[in-house]
Specification:
By secondary structure, this protein is of the alpha/beta class. The chain has nine helices and ten strands. The two termini are 23 Å apart.
């Protein structure tokens, strides 16, 4: 069973992310939507309960088969969600990237990225303007370095299993020439083994600007979701460190699936 945790603070962006996720899970009999709210005081309990019950009805009306409600008072939001994801062995956590006011933008947006940094489970970052058109094409941006050790293939496969999309594995490198190096060929073979059950294609793009290349690729191949692997800041030579994920999250119009190495 795929458990998808959807934290909501009832801001416009968190509700947009929740409704996007509802469409994504509609009709999936092997998925459970878990709506979560972290309220501040006893006075907020009844309000949080009513809001979650109302949102649950929306999910059911959207065709989501199973919806659970979870709420708790106080504590650190990121710690709370991480603990719950671990306890429930969640497949995915789905969150928006900004909130409805300037303060909320800082709080909810930064909490989403903190969760990406801290949490061991995949986080789907849903932009405010994301429109759900199915999950038919998923792009995975890779630097093709030590992919077996740095790719959480089991976690990514668990997410992809819900949708069975075409997986487009993309490498952007200004040094690509006519033929691929032996090292790149070896890393490609590792990907073939790791994603043996997925439909997949490989792309090697010769460009200097990674973001421009991926932006063009997303448009040209009608990509519905982009996978990236955040890495710790100490690995400063890697394109795929957290600042890279942050740039993608704030500039993308499609959801970003951040899955930790």
């Amino acid at each position: 069973m795929h458990r998808v945790i959807i934290p909501v603070d009832f801001s416009e962006t968190s509700l947009n992310a929740a409704r996007f996720t509802a469409k994504m899970l509609s009709g999936k009999k092997d998925a459970v939507a878990i709506l979560y709210n972290n309220y501040e005081s006893d006075d907020d309990h009844d309000i949080a309960t009513n809001y979650l019950e109302s949102l649950k009805k929306e999910f059911v009306n959207s065709g989501v088969e199973t919806v659970q409600l979870e709420y708790e008072m106080g504590g650190d939001l990121v710690d709370n969600i991480s603990r719950m994801a671990h306890t429930m062995r969640a497949t995915l956590i789905a969150m928006g990237i900004t909130g409805k006011s300037a303060i909320k933008q800082v709080m909810f947006g930064s909490n989403t990225l903190k969760l990406v940094d801290k949490n061991l489970y995949p986080v789907l970052i849903i932009p405010p303007d994301a429109v759900y058109n199915g999950v038919n094409n998923v792009a995975f941006a890779s630097d093709y370095k030590n992919v077996e050790d740095t790719t959480p293939s089991a976690l990514i496969n668990s997410v992809l299993e819900m949708f069975e999309p075409m997986l487009h594995i993309v490498n952007v490198n200004k040094d690509h020439y006519v033929s691929l190096t032996e090292e790149i060929q070896q890393q490609k073979q590792k990907f073939i083994e790791m994603f043996s059950e997925r439909k997949k294609e490989f792309y090697f793009i010769t460009m200097n600007d990674f973001y421009e290349a991926m932006d063009n690729f997303v448009k040209d191949y009608r990509i519905d979701m982009l996978i990236t692997i955040p890495r710790h800041q100490s690995n400063s030579t890697s394109l795929f460190k957290s600042s890279h994920t942050k740039h993608l999250a704030y500039h993308s119009h499609i959801p970003i699936l951040a899955a930790h190495e």
